[in-house]
Write a structure and sequence with these properties.
- The protein has 3 domains: 173 residues, 2-Layer Sandwich (Beta-Lactamase); 163 residues, Rossmann fold, CATH 3.40.50; 144 residues, Orthogonal Bundle (Helicase, Ruva Protein, domain 3), CATH 1.10.8.60.
- It is of the alpha/beta class.
- The chain starts with a helix and ends in a 12-residue tail after the last helix.
- The protein has a 6-stranded antiparallel β-sheet.
- The longest helix is centred in the first third of the chain and has 28 residues.
- The protein is built from 20 helices and 15 strands.
Amino acid sequence: MSERGQIEIAVLNQISHTIVHEHNVSELLRKVLNILHHEMGLLRGTITMRHGDTLLIEASNGLTGDEINRGKYMIGEGITGRVAQTARPALIPDISREPEFLGRTQARPKKGHIAFICVPVIHLENVIGTLSIDRETRERHTLEQDLRLLETVANIIAEAVASCLEQHEERRQLLEENIRLREELGATPRPSNLIGNCNAMRAVYKMISQVAASNATVLIRGASGTGKELIARAVHQASGRHAEPFVAVNCAALPDSLIESELFGYEKGAFTGAVARRIGRAEAADGGTLFLDEIGDLSINVQVKLLRFLQERTITRVGSNEEIKLDVRLLAATSRDLEKLMEEGKFREDLYYRLNVFPIQLPSLHKRGSDIILLADHFLGKYSKLHGKNIARISTPAINMLMSYHWPGNVRELENCIERAVLTASDTVIHGYDLPPSLQTAEASGTAVIHPDAQADFKTLVNSFERELIVEALKGESGNVAAAARKLGLSERIIHYKIGKLGITPEWYRAKKD
Protein backbone atom coordinates (compact mmCIF):
# COMPACT_ATOMS: atom_id res chain seq x y z
CA MET A 1 0.00 0.00 0.00
CA SER A 2 1.23 3.51 -0.81
CA GLU A 3 2.21 5.98 1.90
CA ARG A 4 -0.91 7.97 1.06
CA GLY A 5 -3.05 4.87 1.55
CA GLN A 6 -1.42 4.19 4.91
CA ILE A 7 -2.15 7.76 6.03
CA GLU A 8 -5.81 7.41 5.04
CA ILE A 9 -6.17 4.10 6.89
CA ALA A 10 -4.49 5.65 9.95
CA VAL A 11 -6.91 8.61 9.84
CA LEU A 12 -9.99 6.39 9.60
CA ASN A 13 -8.69 4.00 12.26
CA GLN A 14 -8.02 6.80 14.77
CA ILE A 15 -11.34 8.53 14.09
CA SER A 16 -13.31 5.29 14.46
CA HIS A 17 -11.51 4.54 17.73
CA THR A 18 -12.29 8.06 18.98
CA ILE A 19 -15.98 7.72 18.10
CA VAL A 20 -16.27 4.51 20.12
CA HIS A 21 -14.43 5.80 23.20
CA GLU A 22 -15.23 9.55 23.36
CA HIS A 23 -18.74 10.18 24.70
CA ASN A 24 -18.54 13.99 24.82
CA VAL A 25 -19.66 14.94 21.32
CA SER A 26 -18.05 18.40 21.23
CA GLU A 27 -14.74 16.92 22.37
CA LEU A 28 -15.13 14.13 19.82
CA LEU A 29 -15.47 16.61 16.94
CA ARG A 30 -12.47 18.58 18.17
CA LYS A 31 -10.38 15.39 18.29
CA VAL A 32 -11.46 14.45 14.77
CA LEU A 33 -10.11 17.78 13.48
CA ASN A 34 -6.91 17.31 15.48
CA ILE A 35 -6.40 13.89 13.87
CA LEU A 36 -6.86 15.39 10.40
CA HIS A 37 -4.46 18.21 11.30
CA HIS A 38 -1.68 15.91 12.53
CA GLU A 39 -2.02 13.14 9.96
CA MET A 40 -2.57 15.35 6.89
CA GLY A 41 -0.67 18.52 7.80
CA LEU A 42 -3.65 20.87 7.49
CA LEU A 43 -3.58 24.61 8.18
CA ARG A 44 -7.10 24.88 9.58
CA GLY A 45 -10.24 22.78 9.91
CA THR A 46 -13.86 23.45 10.88
CA ILE A 47 -17.05 21.51 11.46
CA THR A 48 -20.20 23.61 11.11
CA MET A 49 -23.70 22.60 12.15
CA ARG A 50 -26.96 23.75 10.69
CA HIS A 51 -29.32 25.75 12.90
CA GLY A 52 -32.37 26.58 10.83
CA ASP A 53 -31.09 28.59 7.87
CA THR A 54 -27.73 29.36 9.47
CA LEU A 55 -24.44 27.44 9.69
CA LEU A 56 -22.40 27.95 12.88
CA ILE A 57 -18.92 26.62 13.68
CA GLU A 58 -19.23 23.83 16.27
CA ALA A 59 -15.59 22.66 16.33
CA SER A 60 -12.38 24.03 14.85
CA ASN A 61 -8.63 23.62 14.60
CA GLY A 62 -6.39 26.63 14.03
CA LEU A 63 -9.03 29.33 14.73
CA THR A 64 -9.22 31.85 17.58
CA GLY A 65 -12.41 32.56 19.52
CA ASP A 66 -13.07 35.75 17.55
CA GLU A 67 -12.54 33.95 14.25
CA ILE A 68 -15.00 31.24 15.29
CA ASN A 69 -17.63 33.85 16.20
CA ARG A 70 -17.26 35.47 12.78
CA GLY A 71 -17.80 32.15 11.02
CA LYS A 72 -21.56 32.35 10.40
CA TYR A 73 -23.07 31.52 7.02
CA MET A 74 -26.59 31.53 5.65
CA ILE A 75 -27.60 28.46 3.65
CA GLY A 76 -26.50 29.12 0.06
CA GLU A 77 -24.07 31.88 1.07
CA GLY A 78 -20.44 31.55 -0.01
CA ILE A 79 -18.73 28.21 -0.61
CA THR A 80 -19.72 26.69 2.75
CA GLY A 81 -23.35 27.77 2.43
CA ARG A 82 -23.51 26.44 -1.12
CA VAL A 83 -22.22 23.03 -0.02
CA ALA A 84 -24.91 22.87 2.68
CA GLN A 85 -27.58 23.93 0.18
CA THR A 86 -26.65 21.55 -2.65
CA ALA A 87 -25.25 18.62 -0.60
CA ARG A 88 -22.31 18.65 -3.02
CA PRO A 89 -18.64 19.03 -2.03
CA ALA A 90 -16.49 21.96 -3.15
CA LEU A 91 -12.77 22.02 -4.00
CA ILE A 92 -11.09 25.42 -4.42
CA PRO A 93 -7.41 25.00 -5.43
CA ASP A 94 -6.58 28.65 -4.67
CA ILE A 95 -9.00 30.79 -2.64
CA SER A 96 -7.32 34.01 -3.81
CA ARG A 97 -8.74 33.33 -7.27
CA GLU A 98 -12.25 32.38 -6.14
CA PRO A 99 -14.62 35.41 -5.99
CA GLU A 100 -17.31 33.40 -4.16
CA PHE A 101 -14.97 32.63 -1.24
CA LEU A 102 -15.99 34.95 1.62
CA GLY A 103 -13.12 34.48 4.10
CA ARG A 104 -15.53 35.53 6.82
CA THR A 105 -13.45 34.23 9.74
CA GLN A 106 -10.56 36.50 8.62
CA ALA A 107 -8.20 33.69 9.62
CA ARG A 108 -6.26 33.50 6.35
CA PRO A 109 -3.29 35.72 5.52
CA LYS A 110 -3.75 38.15 2.65
CA LYS A 111 -0.77 36.67 0.83
CA GLY A 112 -0.08 33.04 0.06
CA HIS A 113 -1.86 30.35 -1.88
CA ILE A 114 -4.33 28.27 0.12
CA ALA A 115 -6.62 25.47 -1.06
CA PHE A 116 -10.06 25.05 0.52
CA ILE A 117 -12.10 21.83 0.57
CA CYS A 118 -15.63 21.60 2.01
CA VAL A 119 -17.90 18.53 2.13
CA PRO A 120 -21.46 18.12 3.45
CA VAL A 121 -22.24 16.11 6.59
CA ILE A 122 -25.38 14.13 5.79
CA HIS A 123 -27.59 12.24 8.26
CA LEU A 124 -30.76 10.44 7.19
CA GLU A 125 -30.57 12.19 3.80
CA ASN A 126 -30.46 15.68 5.38
CA VAL A 127 -27.47 18.05 5.32
CA ILE A 128 -26.85 18.82 8.99
CA GLY A 129 -23.48 20.53 8.67
CA THR A 130 -20.19 20.75 6.80
CA LEU A 131 -16.59 19.63 7.26
CA SER A 132 -13.96 21.92 5.71
CA ILE A 133 -10.17 22.25 5.68
CA ASP A 134 -7.50 24.71 4.56
CA ARG A 135 -4.21 23.42 3.24
CA GLU A 136 -1.33 24.68 1.15
CA THR A 137 -2.09 24.60 -2.57
CA ARG A 138 -0.84 21.44 -4.25
CA GLU A 139 -1.47 19.32 -7.34
CA ARG A 140 -5.11 18.82 -8.31
CA HIS A 141 -5.07 15.02 -8.00
CA THR A 142 -3.71 15.27 -4.43
CA LEU A 143 -6.49 17.70 -3.48
CA GLU A 144 -9.03 15.32 -5.02
CA GLN A 145 -7.64 12.52 -2.84
CA ASP A 146 -8.10 14.81 0.18
CA LEU A 147 -11.70 15.50 -0.86
CA ARG A 148 -12.54 11.78 -1.10
CA LEU A 149 -11.02 11.15 2.33
CA LEU A 150 -13.01 14.05 3.84
CA GLU A 151 -16.24 12.64 2.37
CA THR A 152 -15.54 9.34 4.14
CA VAL A 153 -14.76 11.14 7.42
CA ALA A 154 -17.97 13.20 7.11
CA ASN A 155 -19.90 9.97 6.61
CA ILE A 156 -18.36 8.44 9.74
CA ILE A 157 -18.95 11.48 12.00
CA ALA A 158 -22.48 12.16 10.75
CA GLU A 159 -24.06 10.31 13.68
CA ALA A 160 -21.93 12.25 16.17
CA VAL A 161 -22.84 15.58 14.59
CA ALA A 162 -26.51 14.59 14.67
CA SER A 163 -26.19 13.75 18.38
CA CYS A 164 -24.60 17.13 19.02
CA LEU A 165 -27.51 18.84 17.30
CA GLU A 166 -29.96 16.99 19.52
CA GLN A 167 -28.11 18.23 22.62
CA HIS A 168 -28.82 21.86 21.65
CA GLU A 169 -32.39 21.78 22.90
CA GLU A 170 -32.46 25.51 23.45
CA ARG A 171 -32.32 26.05 19.69
CA ARG A 172 -36.11 25.98 19.22
CA GLN A 173 -35.99 26.54 15.49
CA LEU A 174 -33.78 23.49 14.93
CA LEU A 175 -35.98 21.31 17.12
CA GLU A 176 -39.10 22.38 15.23
CA GLU A 177 -37.38 21.62 11.94
CA ASN A 178 -36.35 18.15 13.19
CA ILE A 179 -39.90 17.42 14.34
CA ARG A 180 -41.30 18.55 11.01
CA LEU A 181 -38.85 16.39 9.08
CA ARG A 182 -39.53 13.36 11.25
CA GLU A 183 -43.27 13.77 10.77
CA GLU A 184 -42.88 14.11 7.00
CA LEU A 185 -40.26 11.45 6.43
CA GLY A 186 -40.84 9.19 9.42
CA ALA A 187 -37.11 9.48 10.01
CA THR A 188 -35.52 8.25 13.23
CA PRO A 189 -31.91 8.13 14.42
CA ARG A 190 -29.84 5.01 13.93
CA PRO A 191 -31.27 2.19 16.09
CA SER A 192 -29.15 1.80 19.21
CA ASN A 193 -28.43 -1.90 18.57
CA LEU A 194 -27.01 -1.28 15.08
CA ILE A 195 -23.61 0.02 13.99
CA GLY A 196 -22.77 1.58 10.65
CA ASN A 197 -23.41 4.74 8.69
CA CYS A 198 -22.72 3.78 5.07
CA ASN A 199 -25.32 4.73 2.48
CA ALA A 200 -26.76 1.21 2.29
CA MET A 201 -27.28 1.03 6.06
CA ARG A 202 -28.74 4.54 6.20
CA ALA A 203 -31.32 3.32 3.68
CA VAL A 204 -32.07 0.36 5.97
CA TYR A 205 -32.53 2.69 8.98
CA LYS A 206 -34.95 4.78 6.96
CA MET A 207 -36.99 1.70 6.04
CA ILE A 208 -37.08 0.61 9.69
CA SER A 209 -38.44 4.04 10.68
CA GLN A 210 -41.05 3.86 7.92
CA VAL A 211 -42.45 0.44 8.83
CA ALA A 212 -41.88 0.13 12.59
CA ALA A 213 -45.06 1.88 13.77
CA SER A 214 -47.33 -0.25 11.57
CA ASN A 215 -48.34 -3.90 11.94
CA ALA A 216 -47.16 -4.76 8.42
CA THR A 217 -45.29 -8.01 7.86
CA VAL A 218 -41.61 -7.42 7.11
CA LEU A 219 -39.39 -9.76 5.08
CA ILE A 220 -35.69 -9.20 5.86
CA ARG A 221 -33.36 -10.55 3.20
CA GLY A 222 -29.60 -10.88 3.20
CA ALA A 223 -26.72 -13.32 3.24
CA SER A 224 -25.93 -15.33 6.36
CA GLY A 225 -24.20 -13.21 9.00
CA THR A 226 -25.48 -9.81 7.85
CA GLY A 227 -27.51 -9.24 11.04
CA LYS A 228 -31.09 -10.04 10.05
CA GLU A 229 -32.20 -10.74 13.62
CA LEU A 230 -30.69 -7.42 14.79
CA ILE A 231 -32.80 -5.63 12.17
CA ALA A 232 -35.89 -7.51 13.34
CA ARG A 233 -35.19 -6.49 16.94
CA ALA A 234 -34.70 -2.88 15.82
CA VAL A 235 -38.12 -2.93 14.11
CA HIS A 236 -39.68 -4.37 17.28
CA GLN A 237 -37.98 -1.84 19.57
CA ALA A 238 -39.14 1.08 17.41
CA SER A 239 -42.73 -0.19 17.32
CA GLY A 240 -45.62 0.27 19.71
CA ARG A 241 -45.08 -3.36 20.78
CA HIS A 242 -41.60 -2.73 22.20
CA ALA A 243 -42.70 -3.50 25.78
CA GLU A 244 -44.22 -6.84 24.70
CA PRO A 245 -42.41 -10.12 23.91
CA PHE A 246 -40.04 -10.54 20.99
CA VAL A 247 -39.90 -14.25 20.18
CA ALA A 248 -37.35 -15.54 17.66
CA VAL A 249 -37.49 -18.94 15.94
CA ASN A 250 -34.73 -20.31 13.71
CA CYS A 251 -36.67 -22.45 11.26
CA ALA A 252 -33.49 -24.04 9.90
CA ALA A 253 -32.52 -25.34 13.35
CA LEU A 254 -35.72 -27.36 13.90
CA PRO A 255 -36.53 -30.69 12.23
CA ASP A 256 -39.70 -30.75 10.16
CA SER A 257 -41.33 -33.15 12.62
CA LEU A 258 -41.04 -30.64 15.48
CA ILE A 259 -41.49 -27.24 13.89
CA GLU A 260 -45.30 -27.27 13.83
CA SER A 261 -45.58 -28.10 17.54
CA GLU A 262 -42.79 -25.60 18.28
CA LEU A 263 -44.63 -22.80 16.47
CA PHE A 264 -48.22 -23.54 17.42
CA GLY A 265 -47.92 -25.64 20.60
CA TYR A 266 -49.61 -28.92 21.51
CA GLU A 267 -52.12 -30.47 23.89
CA LYS A 268 -51.43 -33.17 26.44
CA GLY A 269 -51.43 -36.57 24.75
CA ALA A 270 -51.16 -35.13 21.24
CA PHE A 271 -48.24 -37.48 20.57
CA THR A 272 -45.86 -39.74 22.45
CA GLY A 273 -44.02 -37.66 25.02
CA ALA A 274 -46.63 -34.88 25.17
CA VAL A 275 -47.22 -35.25 28.91
CA ALA A 276 -48.60 -31.73 29.37
CA ARG A 277 -50.01 -28.88 27.35
CA ARG A 278 -47.40 -26.54 25.91
CA ILE A 279 -48.00 -23.21 24.19
CA GLY A 280 -46.09 -22.53 20.99
CA ARG A 281 -43.80 -19.67 20.06
CA ALA A 282 -46.59 -17.84 18.22
CA GLU A 283 -48.78 -17.89 21.32
CA ALA A 284 -45.83 -16.83 23.50
CA ALA A 285 -45.48 -13.76 21.27
CA ASP A 286 -49.12 -12.71 21.71
CA GLY A 287 -49.24 -8.90 21.91
CA GLY A 288 -45.68 -8.65 20.64
CA THR A 289 -43.56 -9.76 17.69
CA LEU A 290 -42.81 -13.22 16.25
CA PHE A 291 -39.61 -13.42 14.22
CA LEU A 292 -39.15 -16.41 11.92
CA ASP A 293 -35.56 -16.68 10.73
CA GLU A 294 -34.62 -18.74 7.65
CA ILE A 295 -38.24 -19.03 6.62
CA GLY A 296 -37.15 -20.50 3.29
CA ASP A 297 -36.37 -23.76 5.11
CA LEU A 298 -40.00 -24.45 6.09
CA SER A 299 -41.67 -27.51 4.58
CA ILE A 300 -44.70 -27.05 2.31
CA ASN A 301 -46.92 -28.55 5.03
CA VAL A 302 -45.84 -25.97 7.63
CA GLN A 303 -46.04 -23.22 5.00
CA VAL A 304 -49.75 -23.96 4.58
CA LYS A 305 -50.38 -23.54 8.31
CA LEU A 306 -48.27 -20.40 8.46
CA LEU A 307 -50.25 -18.92 5.57
CA ARG A 308 -53.49 -19.59 7.44
CA PHE A 309 -52.03 -17.90 10.52
CA LEU A 310 -51.06 -14.85 8.46
CA GLN A 311 -54.51 -14.63 6.89
CA GLU A 312 -56.63 -15.17 9.99
CA ARG A 313 -54.22 -14.55 12.90
CA THR A 314 -55.46 -17.76 14.53
CA ILE A 315 -53.64 -20.96 15.47
CA THR A 316 -54.66 -24.47 16.45
CA ARG A 317 -52.45 -26.43 18.82
CA VAL A 318 -51.40 -29.91 17.72
CA GLY A 319 -53.94 -32.38 19.13
CA SER A 320 -56.71 -29.77 19.42
CA ASN A 321 -59.53 -28.41 17.27
CA GLU A 322 -59.84 -25.14 19.17
CA GLU A 323 -58.88 -22.00 17.27
CA ILE A 324 -56.96 -19.42 19.30
CA LYS A 325 -57.02 -15.79 18.16
CA LEU A 326 -53.67 -14.00 18.53
CA ASP A 327 -52.46 -10.41 18.22
CA VAL A 328 -48.98 -10.99 16.80
CA ARG A 329 -46.85 -9.04 14.37
CA LEU A 330 -44.82 -11.29 12.08
CA LEU A 331 -41.29 -10.53 10.92
CA ALA A 332 -39.50 -13.04 8.72
CA ALA A 333 -35.99 -13.41 7.31
CA THR A 334 -34.19 -15.56 4.81
CA SER A 335 -30.81 -15.92 3.15
CA ARG A 336 -32.26 -18.09 0.38
CA ASP A 337 -33.55 -17.21 -3.08
CA LEU A 338 -37.32 -17.49 -2.49
CA GLU A 339 -38.11 -16.73 -6.13
CA LYS A 340 -36.02 -19.71 -7.25
CA LEU A 341 -37.64 -21.89 -4.57
CA MET A 342 -41.06 -20.89 -5.93
CA GLU A 343 -40.01 -21.92 -9.44
CA GLU A 344 -38.89 -25.29 -8.05
CA GLY A 345 -42.19 -25.74 -6.20
CA LYS A 346 -40.50 -25.62 -2.78
CA PHE A 347 -42.07 -22.36 -1.58
CA ARG A 348 -45.70 -21.36 -1.90
CA GLU A 349 -46.35 -18.34 -4.07
CA ASP A 350 -49.31 -17.16 -1.96
CA LEU A 351 -47.17 -17.30 1.20
CA TYR A 352 -44.39 -15.38 -0.56
CA TYR A 353 -46.70 -12.48 -1.38
CA ARG A 354 -48.14 -12.50 2.16
CA LEU A 355 -44.63 -12.22 3.60
CA ASN A 356 -43.21 -9.79 1.06
CA VAL A 357 -45.35 -6.82 2.15
CA PHE A 358 -42.34 -4.70 3.16
CA PRO A 359 -38.98 -6.19 2.13
CA ILE A 360 -35.71 -4.95 3.63
CA GLN A 361 -32.53 -6.00 1.83
CA LEU A 362 -29.35 -6.05 3.95
CA PRO A 363 -26.01 -5.35 2.25
CA SER A 364 -23.12 -7.79 2.51
CA LEU A 365 -20.21 -6.56 4.64
CA HIS A 366 -17.88 -6.19 1.64
CA LYS A 367 -20.31 -3.53 0.34
CA ARG A 368 -20.11 -1.61 3.65
CA GLY A 369 -16.47 -0.52 3.36
CA SER A 370 -16.73 2.57 5.57
CA ASP A 371 -18.41 0.51 8.32
CA ILE A 372 -15.75 -2.20 8.68
CA ILE A 373 -13.48 -0.10 10.93
CA LEU A 374 -16.45 1.03 13.06
CA LEU A 375 -17.62 -2.56 13.53
CA ALA A 376 -14.10 -3.84 14.21
CA ASP A 377 -13.51 -1.17 16.85
CA HIS A 378 -16.87 -1.96 18.47
CA PHE A 379 -16.05 -5.67 18.67
CA LEU A 380 -12.56 -4.84 19.95
CA GLY A 381 -14.06 -2.93 22.89
CA LYS A 382 -16.67 -5.62 23.52
CA TYR A 383 -14.29 -8.58 23.62
CA SER A 384 -11.43 -6.77 25.34
CA LYS A 385 -13.83 -6.13 28.22
CA LEU A 386 -15.33 -9.63 28.09
CA HIS A 387 -11.95 -11.36 28.21
CA GLY A 388 -10.31 -8.89 30.60
CA LYS A 389 -7.64 -7.66 28.18
CA ASN A 390 -6.37 -4.10 27.78
CA ILE A 391 -6.17 -3.71 24.00
CA ALA A 392 -6.19 -0.11 22.81
CA ARG A 393 -6.31 -0.34 19.03
CA ILE A 394 -5.86 -2.29 15.82
CA SER A 395 -2.60 -1.71 13.95
CA THR A 396 -2.59 -0.10 10.52
CA PRO A 397 -1.41 -3.28 8.71
CA ALA A 398 -4.16 -5.26 10.46
CA ILE A 399 -6.77 -2.64 9.51
CA ASN A 400 -5.47 -2.86 5.95
CA MET A 401 -6.03 -6.63 6.01
CA LEU A 402 -9.56 -6.21 7.40
CA MET A 403 -10.41 -3.66 4.71
CA SER A 404 -8.99 -5.84 1.90
CA TYR A 405 -10.72 -9.10 2.87
CA HIS A 406 -13.94 -10.12 1.08
CA TRP A 407 -15.84 -11.31 4.23
CA PRO A 408 -17.93 -14.24 2.92
CA GLY A 409 -19.28 -14.71 6.46
CA ASN A 410 -20.19 -11.02 6.76
CA VAL A 411 -20.51 -9.28 10.15
CA ARG A 412 -20.59 -12.58 12.05
CA GLU A 413 -17.23 -13.55 10.55
CA LEU A 414 -15.76 -10.13 11.40
CA GLU A 415 -16.96 -10.46 15.00
CA ASN A 416 -15.41 -13.93 15.33
CA CYS A 417 -12.21 -12.65 13.73
CA ILE A 418 -11.84 -9.79 16.24
CA GLU A 419 -12.64 -12.02 19.23
CA ARG A 420 -9.95 -14.47 18.12
CA ALA A 421 -7.48 -11.61 17.67
CA VAL A 422 -8.24 -10.30 21.17
CA LEU A 423 -7.54 -13.75 22.61
CA THR A 424 -4.25 -14.18 20.72
CA ALA A 425 -2.92 -10.63 21.14
CA SER A 426 0.19 -10.44 23.32
CA ASP A 427 0.26 -6.66 23.85
CA THR A 428 -2.09 -3.67 23.68
CA VAL A 429 -2.36 -3.69 19.87
CA ILE A 430 -3.99 -6.12 17.43
CA HIS A 431 -1.37 -6.94 14.79
CA GLY A 432 -1.79 -8.57 11.40
CA TYR A 433 -0.38 -11.85 12.71
CA ASP A 434 -3.13 -11.95 15.37
CA LEU A 435 -5.79 -12.26 12.67
CA PRO A 436 -7.07 -15.66 11.46
CA PRO A 437 -5.22 -17.60 8.71
CA SER A 438 -7.99 -16.79 6.23
CA LEU A 439 -6.86 -13.15 6.31
CA GLN A 440 -3.16 -13.99 5.98
CA THR A 441 -3.33 -14.71 2.24
CA ALA A 442 -1.77 -12.50 -0.39
CA GLU A 443 -5.21 -11.48 -1.64
CA ALA A 444 -6.43 -10.50 1.85
CA SER A 445 -3.38 -8.77 3.26
CA GLY A 446 -1.63 -7.32 0.26
CA THR A 447 1.55 -9.30 1.08
CA ALA A 448 2.64 -12.57 -0.45
CA VAL A 449 4.66 -15.65 0.34
CA ILE A 450 7.86 -15.58 -1.72
CA HIS A 451 7.73 -17.97 -4.68
CA PRO A 452 10.66 -18.66 -7.04
CA ASP A 453 8.93 -16.79 -9.87
CA ALA A 454 7.75 -13.87 -7.73
CA GLN A 455 8.18 -10.44 -9.34
CA ALA A 456 9.04 -8.63 -6.08
CA ASP A 457 12.60 -9.27 -4.96
CA PHE A 458 13.66 -10.14 -1.43
CA LYS A 459 15.03 -6.65 -0.73
CA THR A 460 11.69 -5.01 -1.59
CA LEU A 461 9.80 -7.35 0.73
CA VAL A 462 12.26 -6.76 3.58
CA ASN A 463 11.99 -2.97 3.13
CA SER A 464 8.20 -3.22 3.25
CA PHE A 465 8.32 -5.26 6.46
CA GLU A 466 10.86 -2.90 8.08
CA ARG A 467 8.71 0.09 7.18
CA GLU A 468 5.63 -1.42 8.85
CA LEU A 469 7.61 -2.21 12.02
CA ILE A 470 9.02 1.32 12.26
CA VAL A 471 5.69 3.02 11.53
CA GLU A 472 3.96 0.91 14.19
CA ALA A 473 6.68 1.76 16.72
CA LEU A 474 6.41 5.49 15.93
CA LYS A 475 2.63 5.39 16.30
CA GLY A 476 2.94 3.59 19.62
CA GLU A 477 5.45 6.19 20.86
CA SER A 478 3.57 9.24 19.46
CA GLY A 479 6.28 9.95 16.89
CA ASN A 480 9.18 9.88 19.40
CA VAL A 481 12.08 8.50 17.33
CA ALA A 482 14.33 7.73 20.30
CA ALA A 483 11.56 5.81 22.09
CA ALA A 484 10.71 3.93 18.89
CA ALA A 485 14.38 2.96 18.50
CA ARG A 486 14.47 1.58 22.05
CA LYS A 487 11.25 -0.34 21.43
CA LEU A 488 12.75 -1.97 18.33
CA GLY A 489 16.18 -2.54 19.87
CA LEU A 490 17.90 -0.22 17.38
CA SER A 491 20.36 2.60 17.85
CA GLU A 492 19.14 6.11 17.07
CA ARG A 493 21.67 6.35 14.23
CA ILE A 494 20.30 3.19 12.58
CA ILE A 495 16.64 4.16 12.96
CA HIS A 496 17.30 7.65 11.54
CA TYR A 497 19.07 6.03 8.59
CA LYS A 498 16.14 3.68 7.96
CA ILE A 499 13.55 6.46 8.39
CA GLY A 500 15.30 8.48 5.69
CA LYS A 501 15.81 5.47 3.44
CA LEU A 502 12.19 4.33 3.69
CA GLY A 503 10.65 7.81 3.38
CA ILE A 504 8.95 7.83 6.79
CA THR A 505 7.84 11.13 8.37
CA PRO A 506 7.82 10.81 12.21
CA GLU A 507 5.97 14.15 12.58
CA TRP A 508 2.81 12.52 11.22
CA TYR A 509 2.59 10.33 14.31
CA ARG A 510 3.20 12.96 16.97
CA ALA A 511 0.33 13.63 19.39
CA LYS A 512 -0.76 17.23 19.85
CA LYS A 513 0.44 18.90 23.05
CA ASP A 514 -2.29 20.95 24.72
